[in-house]
Every structure is written in structure tokens, then in C-alpha cells.
Amino acid sequence: MDLTVWRTFVTVCRLGSLSAAATELHHTQSAVSRQIAGLERQLGVALMERHARGVRPTPAGEVFRHHALATLNEADRAVRATREAGDGAFNRPLAVGATPSLAAGIVPEAIRALLQQAGSIRWSLLPGSTAQLHCRVVTGDLDIAVVTDAPPGLPHDPRIERRFLGLDAMVVALPVDHPQAERGPVHMRALADQTWVEDNEGSAALLRQHAARAGVSARIDLTAADLPGKLALVATGHAIALIPGVLTRALRADVTTTPLVDPPTRGIYAITPRRDPHPHAAPLLDHLATAFASVCAAQVDCRPTESDTHRSPGHRTLAAGTECP
């Protein structure tokens, strides 16, 4: 099959419009329609369906889109690698992924240390969830990702190498004028009457588990779209929040933190593909370990303790059915 047609299909899926895809690809709309129709004939199944505002993939089309995107990304990598090899010099950009809290915390610090050591390197940083980043490492989109084992967990996958960086103790984010601000470790029972805000189910699960151990429940009455939105609600006094300890040094000025008694923790890992490793991934791993140790030096149980650096005491396995193909 011609990968040009695959690119057309993926573009139509992304834009949700034949005409918009035609404009982006510098084709006519009829040419795009013919390509999609020809692809459907080859596969023997309908890939697109119309709706009130354009088109969308059918269930079969969504399956094909997922695999087509991975194939196209790998094809692009093959072209880049071949051209770089022809130039006689390795110049592949270092593609780094991280969960939002780690992208705001230790990862930029580690990349700065790498650049100081290795000089000019082309690199990029992509935030995402652990599950998303794991899949992108497997498909070759990322050379390294920094992830966590917070619910729903980190999968065991023979296609990737995993290095345990340590345990990150969660802390409570508060507005600076909150009565509990900077008062030292606080027991969960003292926060039982508070309104909490969460931006992801993993953090919410850790909060509920910690509250249950303390014999109380957490009132998660507010939901934020992302981490900045979560911190904005804290700063303006609408709620308090459970956040990773690695974020403490990167918080906005109108938000402070207090530690919890016997805090919930999450394991922090760096994952890399077993095949075709980037030459700068290994030194970045070392800088990540140094950066994490520096940031969490004041936390309890934050240092790596595993002899094999593959599994933490709190390691969680990703729920069945959510692993990458």
C-alpha cells in the first residue's frame, strides 16, 4: 500500500474534514475522497463515516488510524536515520517525554545538565500520561520518558528498559493564607472537612486511599482540566490538592505546601526502548537520577532502594487491556 494514502487518511482523522485535509495536503477534495475510497476497497471495510460537522473514523477506521500513525512515525524515523547516516554524523534529536509534574520539575533540570556536559543537542519535550508515554517509547516516538507508577500503574513490557529513580512523597498544596500552611506534617484527619480538587484519576486514587487509611473520606468536589488549573483553584482558595513532592520548587508564588503524616508515595521511573537507543539517553538517565535526588532530598523515602533498579516497593501494574499493541 502507498503510505501517501495512509498519510491522507490520518490527516482526515486528525482534522475531521475532507476539505480541511485537502487544503493542508495541497490536494483537491475529490482527490482526498478518492484516496479514502480506494483505501476502503483495499481493506474491504468502511473507514470513515459522516456526521453533522464533518467526518470521523468508524471503529475499524480508528483501529487502522492507530496502527497507520505508528507505521508512519516509524517510516519518518527510518528516513531521518538514513539521511543522517549518509551525512556521516549522528544528528537525531533526543525526544524526551514526561508526566506533567515531572516535565515541570526534574526533567528540565536534567536536560540543562546534559547540555552543559554534551554541548549543543537537538531535543524536544513532550508531556503526557504514563500510559501515553509508554506507548510512544514502544512505537519509537520517544527516546526516553520519565513516568510514575501511580494508578493505573506502569506496565511490565519486554520492549522497554526501566530504571527506578526513587519514591516521590505526595504533599498538600494550599493557598498561602491557609491555617495549615507551612505548619509541618499534618494528619489527614485534620483536613477531613476541606474541599479537594483533582486533575487526574491517579492522584485522586492516591488521595482516596490515604484518606481511607486515616479513617476519613476526602471530599473531591472540584475537578480541574490540568495541573495549572488545579493549582489556580488552590491559589484562589477554592480547594486544597494533593500534588507530587517534586513540584514543590516549581510552584507559583501564591501556593505553598505542607507535608502529610505517613504520605502516599509514587515510584518515579525513566523508561527507554531496548532497540535503537539514543546515545544521549544513557547520560540523561544519570542526570535525571541526580536531579531527582536533589529535588526530593527533604522528602521521606524518596531515594532509590532497589538492588536491581527495576521495581519499587510501591510498584503498580497497569490494568489489563490498557497496554500498547
Describe the overall structure.
The chain has helices at 3-15, 18-25, 29-43, 59-86, 100-103, 106-118, 130-139, 201-213, 227-235, 281-295; strands spanning 48-51, 54-57, 94-98, 123-127, 144-148, 160-175, 195-198, 219-223, 241-244, 255-259, 265-273. By secondary structure, it is α/β, with parallel strands linked by helices. Strands 3, 4, 5, 6, 9, 10 and 11 form a seven-stranded mixed sheet that branches. It has a two-stranded antiparallel sheet with strand order 1-2. A two-stranded parallel ribbon has the order 7-8. Strand 7, helix 8 and strand 8 (219-223) form a beta-alpha-beta unit.
Please summarize what this structure is:
The protein has 325 residues and is an alpha/beta fold. The chain has helices spanning 3-15, 18-25, 29-43, 59-86, 100-103, 106-118, 130-139, 201-213, 227-235, 281-295, and strands at residues 48-51, 54-57, 94-98, 123-127, 144-148, 160-175, 195-198, 219-223, 241-244, 255-259, 265-273. Strands 3, 4, 5, 6, 9, 10 and 11 form a seven-stranded mixed β-sheet that branches. The protein has a two-stranded antiparallel sheet with strand order 1-2. The chain has a two-stranded parallel ribbon with strand order 7-8.
